[in-house]
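Hi team,

As requested, here is the filled-out complex form for the zinc ion run. I kept the field names the same as last time so the parser does not choke. Let me know if anything looks off before we queue the next batch.

— J.
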Amino acid sequence: MFCSSCKAPMLVIEYERIEIDHCISCGAIWLDSGELEILLEKSDIATKTQSVFERTEHVKEKRLRCPRCLTKMDKAWFNPEKSVLVDMCNNGHGIWLDRGELESMLGSGETGNRIKTMLAGIFSKKGSKLKGELE
Ligand SMILES: [Zn+2]
Ligand SMILES: [Zn+2]
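And here is what came back:
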């Protein structure tokens, strides 16, 4: 799979059976819809995914294409505070996060911190399992 933002090839990272697609070039992250739900369940965020995201048309950011179906994704606010703006596939494939957005979403709970450590480890190639590189 290639990055929707910078076109670099993306790596698959495994985190407790969740597959996270990560662009090591620009730091973007793709989460398939099912994987996102598991991740939110594991973190301190109690609310269900569907009620968390609020689609919006009032943003100027460039719209990216879904890496799965290549249709243009919608922008959606992740939280009521409107601090994290994500891209969402209209066909329900998942969500696209720019660098740092996943960390903002997950907050400072235990899961959030572990994922931050894991993502930081990718650049040093320690502490994470990189498919296609280590297998
Ligand atoms: Zn990228
Ligand atoms: Zn899609």
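Two things worth flagging: The longest strand covers residues 11-15. The chain has one domain: 11-124.

Thanks,
J.
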